[in-house]
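Re: beginner question about structure tokens

> Can someone show what the tokenized structure looks like for a real chain? I only ever see the sequence side.

Sure, here's an example I had lying around. Input first:
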Amino acid sequence: MKISVVIPCFNAEGTLHDAVRSALEAYEVLVVDDASPGGCAELVASWGWPNVRVIPHRENLGLGAARNSGSAAATGDWIAFLDADDAFEDGWHRALTTFLHQSPEATWVYHPVREWTGTQLRAVRYGDHPTQHSDWLLLRPAVAPSACALRADVAKTQPFDTNRRLQGTEDLELWMRLWAEGHRPLRWTDEAFTRYRISHGMSAELESHTTKIRLRWAQFVERGWIAEGVLVRAEFELQRQKARSLHKAGRFAEAQRAYLAAGPSAKNWILAAAAAVRLKI
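And the corresponding structure tokens:
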């Protein structure tokens, strides 16, 4: 069972070494240089790892296009994705190949991730396992690209969306599309085999992301993937997730407002009260 790992790179030269090194057990590692001004191609060449090759972009095309270029060039049976600021844990490759040999029906697999600041490991994200299309909006599936692998034929025929206006939501669009095509994600282990770097963006970035999510929802309704009535509950969940991000970042007043916008529930009220007294939970 040959696994190809695709790592898009743009301005990530400071973290790329750890990401690539963590993937070296794979059959091949494809680093897609998305016209990074830091010159990640030269950096990768200097390491001299024989199963690592660079796919260059002449211009910056965005995250979705970079992943797609890697998938198109991959020659393995399966394609795993890893962002350049994340890293696999030791043993991931052997465990995954063992599972895939035993699960010929699988087309799409994922595992939990452990939050990571770059210096400190934090909580494991298990999330909810989706059982219907709307669960991707209403629950909290922890299906991160850096913890996902697709059978190669699926990855090559179901590429990431490349709309730069909605960059940052291309993974959600792909998961929804795969579900619509009849694919179902299998959580193949409860071990967190990916260190998933967390950061807390500025308010403008968070607002921009929530706007993009809502635009994706409109697409999903238009395509008939979800009913429009689902969006009321989806908005509550979006506000809850926004509140948690703000709360963890210590932006308490904004977090309190987002909790109160997340719908009437005892949990939201308790968390809003905690934010009001500047208490992290």
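Each token stands for a local structural state, so reading them left to right follows the chain. The chain has two domains: 3-197, 203-276.
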